[in-house]
Amino acid sequence: MLKILLPTAMLIPSSMAIKQNLLTTTLTIYSTALALLSLQWFNNPLSLNTFSNQYTSVDPISAPLLILSFWLLPMMILASQNHLKPEPAARKRPFLTNMVTMQLMLTLTLSTNNLTMFFILFESTLIPTMILITRWGNQPKRLEAGNYFMFYTLFGSLPLLNAILFINNQESHSNLLLMVTMYPKLSNSFTNNTIWAACMAAFLIKLPLYGLHLWLPKAHVEAPIAGSMILAAVLLKLGGYGIIRISTILAPAPNTLLLPPIVLAMWGLIMTGLTCIRQTDLKSMIAYSSVGHMGLVISATLIQSPWSITGAMIMMIAHGLTSSMMFCLANTIYERTHTRTMVSMRGLQKSMPLMSALWLTANLTNLALPPTINLMGEVTIMSALFNWAPPTIIVSASGAMITATYSLYMLSSTQQGKLSKDTSMCPPHTREYLLLIMHLIPMGLLMLNPQLIT
Prior knowledge:
The protein is an all-alpha fold and about 450 residues long. The protein has one domain (about 1-40, about 55-175, about 185-450). It is built from 21 helices and no strands. One of its GO terms (biological process) is electron transport coupled proton transport. Keywords: Electron transport, Membrane, Mitochondrion, NAD, Respiratory chain, Signal, Translocase, Transmembrane, Transmembrane helix, Transport, Ubiquinone. It comes from Acanthosaura lepidogaster. It is an enzyme of class 7 (translocase).
């Protein structure tokens, strides 16, 4: 584990010390080397104990999310180059240092064995994300978005902290691997239910659960492209990862506790889909679609069957790559038109035909076209939900139909129609094509070998 952690940590002093004219190039190459090095975690799960010690470990649940976060770092640096171009040299370095710090915190969060350490690192990812939104956001409302993001997350973290301290007091240690072997000795069912609800609150807000999701569209819309990518691809997945991790050390919750969040998540799948259909802001539409997809992940992780956990893992990785790619595509248009309103973007197929082909690929992946891993994730989760409660198939199937509707609406409203007379589109850069192909490569490889994340 240290062979990855130490080079990642050394990226922070490197980003401060490298010469200005070599900064982005060196960091991109260095982080790409780390991303390729992290692919060894796809190794046989029985061999992953070679990457473990008493403080950190990698297992088949954390490995795909760790690889996704490492794969995303060079892509975030590539995507941010145009955003950083007008910035003075003194402000480029803190931006890159902030992203690298976030990467280190994410790596530690997804690999730590200690429950208390997990809470500290889980909350510490809030700081660089907050700085990214409030300092480098594009719009005047970025401070409001930062406040929403901070207060929603902190509101959920206080019950989680109390629950972790209680479990630590009961067990006299906070090692997750030891706790898995024996459930905490809770005194009665009321205590058990309270601890379960307190632990889930923080993760359901992070995912987010419909009704607790208002921070997400604001954060996505106001964040720079690097912030949107890391939020969509990895930071939302920390909630699902946390539920999977902490459920192993809690006594099973009764159905009376499981029903409200699952009903809200399934209702959110329908409502956010309908919200997407009437959105005019492109980034807001992609953000709301994330809430709907995460509704499926919430339902799957709460059921806690092997089939549903497999589906949730596939869905998290598939959504991470797809939504990150869609934000990159939206950003390429925003950098040319300086608007996110979809009416102003029509007719792009005539000016950028190859980019339109990539738009088509991203939208078809988003609506879970066969044989994409998105479809595998959705079908696995729907099967697990149907097995748990047959009526859920009506809601999940309706959600899939609405997802297809707004995905095709997004494609037609941005690519079809007449190009505006006052719009002059410069052709896409090689850097932008490279960025999008770096999203497509893992999608294609996972389609060929989905066992890597199942």
